[in-house]
């Protein structure tokens, strides 16, 4: 029989006490991915955060380019206005579906959506993220209002087609920002589902504003890009999650479901963008009297709605990938010695 030479006051080894042995990478205040950060917190992975900064910059650039072409050039205004006029076709029947969707967007909706996002973040003990999603919703909506009423204008380039600047769409910004806030605070395994539902709801809201002739397609696209930019900023600055880490040595952090969902969204976005852009280019080149394949205003309306859905799907796919990657701490989890 082996003798036990431990001092009488020493604790029993973990195996003897029935407790699992904690691997070395989980001790001494190290981050859970083996990468120590301030106060022992996980250190954020730098690569995905740099990508998030690039996405934010490109999204803001996209807002400006959308306004520059569709609002400040005669060709862009004509195509955008054709889509606006085309919404009158079948409006009575479509409005029965669109009106309830738009009625949801209100101050109460924003408060409830932000409150739900903050509650999820608090329950997950993500205090900083709770504050950041509030900044996301507030920042995106303030940005939209400032751009629409204080920064961007709408020159009168076409006779008979005048009016105030309506880019970006306020209703779409509200819907998209709340959906993105929920996506960012949701646990890793649920993010693909929330991304799909958020994209669907944002797309429905954007298209509904077209149905009601509240906005033109460019207004909705710009709103989605504003929210994409703010969502990417939050991904760039949010701390790495101590919850989004392996629970045992050697466990993978990859989320195949997220990549599949993001890939499908991007494929759908690419297909929609090709058809939408091709149709709008044809309209821009041929003039307002050519039928391709329907009356030009209906064609522009359908192409504009498809473009809105394409941009929305792409935005949520990108944010899903960014969130999954930036929530992951830097470094790899060492495997337990055998």
Automatic annotation (TrEMBL):
Domain of life: Bacteria
Presence of keyword DNA repair: no
Domain Phosphatidic acid phosphatase type 2/haloperoxidase residue range list: 128-235
Keyword match ATP-binding: no
Transmembrane segments: 50-70, 104-122, 129-147, 167-186, 193-214, 220-240, 260-281, 301-322
InterPro entries the UniProt entry points to: PAP2/HPO, PAP2/HPO_sf
Sequence segments annotated as region (Disordered): 26-46
Pfam families, per the entry: PAP2
Sorted UniProt keywords: Membrane, Transmembrane, Transmembrane helix
Name used for this protein in its record: Phosphatidic acid phosphatase type 2/haloperoxidase domain-containing protein
């Amino acid at each position: 029989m082996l003798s036990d030479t431990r001092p009488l006051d020493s604790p029993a080894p973990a195996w003897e006490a029935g407790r699992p042995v904690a691997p070395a990478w989980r001790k001494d205040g190290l981050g859970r991915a083996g990468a120590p950060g301030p106060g022992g917190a996980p250190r954020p992975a730098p690569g995905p955060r740099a990508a998030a900064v690039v996405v934010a910059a490109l999204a803001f650039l996209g807002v400006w380019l959308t306004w520059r072409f569709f609002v400040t050039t005669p060709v862009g205004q004509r195509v955008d206005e054709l889509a606006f006029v085309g919404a009158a076709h079948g409006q009575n029947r479509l409005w029965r579906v669109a009106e309830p969707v738009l009625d949801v967007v209100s101050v109460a909706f924003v408060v409830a959506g932000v409150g739900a996002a903050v509650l999820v973040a608090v329950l997950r003990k993500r205090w900083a993220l709770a504050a950041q999603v509030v900044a996301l919703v507030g920042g995106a909506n303030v940005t939209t209002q400032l751009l629409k009423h204080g920064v961007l204008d709408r020159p009168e380039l076409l006779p008979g087609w005048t009016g105030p600047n309506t880019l970006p769409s306020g209703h779409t910004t509200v819907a998209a920002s709340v959906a993105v806030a929920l996506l960012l605070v949701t646990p890793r395994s649920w993010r693909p589902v929330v991304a799909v539902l958020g994209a669907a709801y944002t797309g429905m809201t954007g298209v509904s504003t077209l149905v009601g002739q509240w906005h033109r397609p460019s207004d909705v696209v710009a709103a989605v890009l504003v929210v994409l930019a703010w969502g990417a900023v939050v991904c760039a600055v949010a701390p790495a999650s101590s919850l989004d880490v392996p629970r045992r040595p050697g466990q993978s952090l990859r989320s195949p479901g997220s990549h599949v969902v993001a890939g499908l969204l991007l494929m759908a976005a690419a297909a929609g963008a090709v058809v939408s852009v091709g149709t709008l280019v044809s309209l821009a080149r041929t003039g307002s009297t050519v039928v391709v394949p329907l009356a030009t205003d209906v064609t522009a309306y359908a192409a504009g709605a498809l473009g809105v859905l394409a941009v929305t799907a792409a935005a949520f796919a990108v944010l899903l990938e960014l969130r999954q990657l930036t929530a992951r701490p830097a470094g790899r989890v060492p495997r337990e010695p055998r």
